Amino acid sequence: MPSIEKVSAEKHVGDATVLAYHKGHVFSGGIDGKIKIWDNDLNLIRSVDAHEAYLYALTVNSSGKLYSSSCDGSVKFMQPPYDKVEELLLCDDAIEAMCCEGDTLYIGDEKGLVTNWQDDKMLLKYNLVEEVKSLAAEKGWIYTVRDWDVVVSELLPGKSGKYVTRAVLDGKSPLCLLGPVLTDRHKYLAYPDRTGKGLTLVKNLLAERFSIAWQLPDCHEMIVNALCGDEKFLYSGGYDNKVKGWTDLDEEKPKALGEIDLGSCVNCLCCGNDNTVYIACSDGIIRRAKFL
């Protein structure tokens, strides 16, 4: 049966909004503008005043550099041991989504502009027109979503900032890549359906034409606003205060692993080690759960 293994003794003031995980460190951000760094067991290592407004996104590159964005239009970063905050970018647009692929950073804003960065220098801009609420990137493809369509775009080589749209799928934010990595890509892409209460899993291969592996309509009572997954598991959470786990992703219908009622809106999920999932809620508390 799924259970909560650990609960943070300290919490954010107000909602905990975002999470990231990297090599035994859990990072959380909230509407208090703080980033908190925890160990695997949610013992607080450090709390940093990173932003003056609430955090939209956190992501970590392969070197352990942590990037954060806020509704104040800034992107900042910290490097281990995470005791100094530096500014990468300040703009007039809200940056709601970020992700790292290796050491490459991708940033998506409310006007649909996606930029990629290496060594903290911007390389190219891609104008995808629609607000980017959730973002992933993998091997020259970027995955973006707002409220109605999940869009898969292939970035064209060179310095033009051009791209080709490979798929437009019915769905809404958030999205995540998961499953085993085949031919350098994750096998699956997951996201809520357009009602927001169901889940869709598609095959993340161009040869499969992003065909639907399975759909779970109305698997949550209210809108799903948090997803994460690894090689074997998918986790979902939302406004119904529940986190649910799913496995047997290769079957026509996944196996439900049960649910945990947090008593508070689930804002973000991220996978940790040993089949664990970390949960950020509107009560400001960070929790670690295990479904097997």
Automatic annotation (TrEMBL):
Keywords: WD repeat
UniProt-listed SMART domains: WD40
Family annotation (Pfam families): WD40
InterPro entries reported for this sequence: JINGUBANG-like, WD40/YVTN_repeat-like_dom_sf, WD40_repeat_dom_sf, WD40_rpt
Residues in WD repeats: 9-39
The keyword Metal-binding appears for this protein: no
Keyword Cell cycle: no
Name recorded for this polypeptide: WD repeat-containing protein 55 homolog
Native organism: Glossina palpalis gambiensis
